[in-house]
Amino acid sequence: MINNEEFQDEIGNNHISTNAKNPVRDDAFAITDDEKIEKIKKDVESILLTLGMDLTDDSMKGTPNRVAKMFVKEIFGGLNPDKKPKASTFENNYKYGEMLVEKNITLYSTCEHHLLPIIGRAHVAYISSGRVIGLSKMNRIVEHFAKRPQVQERLTMQIVQELQEALGTEDVACVIDAKHLCVNSRGIKDIESSTVTSEFGGKFKDAQIKREFLDYIKLETKF
């Protein structure tokens, strides 16, 4: 019979998500960012000391503080709902009714199972039903949801759902092609493989429209 620790390892090593939403506690923002940085700084210092690192060395002295600030303000900054970009939309006055595709959006995220980088490209598209969104806002939405401990399937869905809500249409699609360093640099150590996920809403479920979108992006992603 598999024990709980083995089960948790099985979930993590096979990169299986057990939650459709990011598993964030209700009290996640009960303390300030500065307080979080101080607590994480001490935790990182403890980890490095346990590993045997000399934190009096000039190269290492600032590492705990740098890592803590990076966690809170950068790579996990998307956990904070106050940092979600305002997805301003506008009337589609020029009546553009075809597909709009923003491809090759650079994506940096972090695998929630091993806290190692996910690096790739997101390709996003929508068909206006009366509203349009600024192109840079699409990039910012991808960046916001990527900046948290993630699984790629969830990230793909969150990007589509956010754009659907902002644009007031189901006609949104997203494909992500990314390398996971938890696969490429540890475990199986397969440096060539990448992971592709997709979410198609509304008209993008139609085979012809889906194929048009996929033809646009061609999935010739370079890393």
UniProtKB/TrEMBL annotation:
Q: Does the keyword Zinc apply?
A: yes
Q: What is its EC number?
A: 3.5.4.16
Q: Which reaction does it catalyse?
A: GTP + H2O = 7,8-dihydroneopterin 3'-triphosphate + formate + H(+)
The pathway that the record names for this protein is: Cofactor biosynthesis; 7,8-dihydroneopterin triphosphate biosynthesis; 7,8-dihydroneopterin triphosphate from GTP: step 1/1
User: What keywords are annotated for this sequence in UniProt?
Assistant: GTP-binding, Hydrolase, Metal-binding, Nucleotide-binding, One-carbon metabolism, Zinc
EC top class, in one word? hydrolase
Q: Which Pfam families match?
A: GTP_cyclohydroI (PF01227)
Describe the protein's quaternary organization and the partners it interacts with.
Homopolymer.
This protein is called GTP cyclohydrolase 1
**The species this protein was found in:** Flavobacterium aquicola
Gene name of the encoded protein: folE
